[in-house]
């Protein structure tokens, strides 16, 4: 209901923007040194046919650090940069990721009621940036995304967020289901925004600690995550179009949580 179902039909017209120079690192030695220093990477591209021992070592180090590695044709590396990449390119995040449990603990310690936004495989960079901007304005304390199958957070995402990604904490986790269990263990209810919901979002109590889950542009929320939800909420719709952009849907539900909490403080 909240997915861009028609996106597939237009995918051939939507070319991915070329990464900015500030978003990438290339060359064997710089990548090795960065990995040894604990540098975060969104992902690594390694030339598919390489038998270089140093590149094999980079692959091993990246796997140990939980960094996504893709083996790609050398032509793909050449399209990203014409400089001497030596068969390896790393995508550098534009922000520093946080530990979700630290953020939740700090939020409670400050006397606040946590509001978390969990994005299940939102891959469009501009959608992600717009969601981050809305979330920051709505008072969301934390955004949680999976390492695999999520938008790359580079300068394009920061720019689209109007700088909000410099202010709102983002956690990137290996296992989204495990992260959701941790949120529930910390006392947060998990509300999945889905057309399968039995209640309108306006009738779901979000004055209590809450994690709102939004699904991907194409497939919505994973069934396994829906089964984990404490509540399923839907956005009531009266028009002929049956779906909303995930960024718009995220704005509706996070600002509804914001409204409920503001009203509670005025009672």
UniProtKB/TrEMBL annotation:
Entry-linked SUPFAM superfamilies: alpha/beta knot (SSF75217), L30e-like (SSF55315)
Domain RNA 2-O ribose methyltransferase substrate binding: 24-98
Entry keyword annotation includes Metal-binding: no
Cross-referenced CDD domains: SpoU-like_RlmB
SMART domains: SpoU_sub_bind (SM00967)
GO cellular component: cytosol
Alphabetically ordered keywords of this record: Methyltransferase, Transferase
GO terms assigned for molecular function: RNA binding; RNA methyltransferase activity
InterPro entries xref list: Alpha/beta_knot_MTases, Ribosomal_eL30-like_sf, rRNA_MeTrfase_TrmH, SpoU_MeTrfase, SpoU_subst-bd, tRNA_m1G_MTases_N
Record-linked Gene3D superfamilies: 3.30.1330.30, 3.40.1280.10
One Pfam family recorded for the sequence: SpoU_sub_bind
NCBIfam families according to UniProt: rRNA_methyl_3 (TIGR00186)
Name of the protein in question: 23S rRNA (Guanosine(2251)-2'-O)-methyltransferase RlmB
Originating organism: Flammeovirga aprica JL-4
Gene encoding the protein: rlmB
């Amino acid at each position: 209901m909240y997915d861009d179902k028609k996106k597939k039909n237009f995918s051939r017209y939507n070319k991915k923007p070329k990464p900015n120079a500030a978003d990438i690192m290339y060359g064997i030695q710089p990548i090795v040194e960065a990995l040894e220093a604990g540098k975060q990477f969104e992902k690594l591209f390694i030339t598919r046919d390489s038998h270089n021992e140093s590149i094999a070592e980079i692959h091993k180090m990246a796997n140990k650090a939980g960094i996504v590695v893709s083996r790609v044709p050398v032509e793909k590396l050449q399209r990203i940069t014409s400089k001497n990449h030596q068969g390896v390119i790393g995508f550098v995040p534009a922000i520093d990721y946080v530990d979700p449990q630290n953020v939740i603990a700090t939020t409670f310690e400050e006397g606040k009621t946590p509001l978390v936004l969990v994005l299940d495989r939102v891959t469009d960079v501009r959608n992600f940036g717009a969601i981050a901007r809305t979330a920051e304005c709505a008072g969301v304390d934390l955004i949680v995304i999976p390492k695999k199958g999520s938008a790359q957070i580079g300068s394009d995402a920061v720019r689209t967020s109007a700088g909000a990604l410099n202010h709102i904490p983002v956690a990137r986790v290996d296992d989204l289901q495990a992260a959701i269990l941790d949120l529930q263990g910390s006392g947060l209810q998990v509300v999945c925004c889905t057309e399968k919901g039995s209640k309108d979002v306006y009738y779901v109590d979000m004055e209590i600690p809450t994690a709102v889950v939004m699904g991907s542009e194409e497939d919505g929320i994973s069934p396994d995550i829906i089964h984990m939800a404490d509540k399923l909420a839907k956005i009531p719709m009266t028009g002929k179009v049956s779906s909303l952009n995930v960024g718009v849907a995220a704005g509706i539900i996070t600002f509804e949580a914001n409204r409920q909490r503001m009203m509670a403080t005025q009672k």
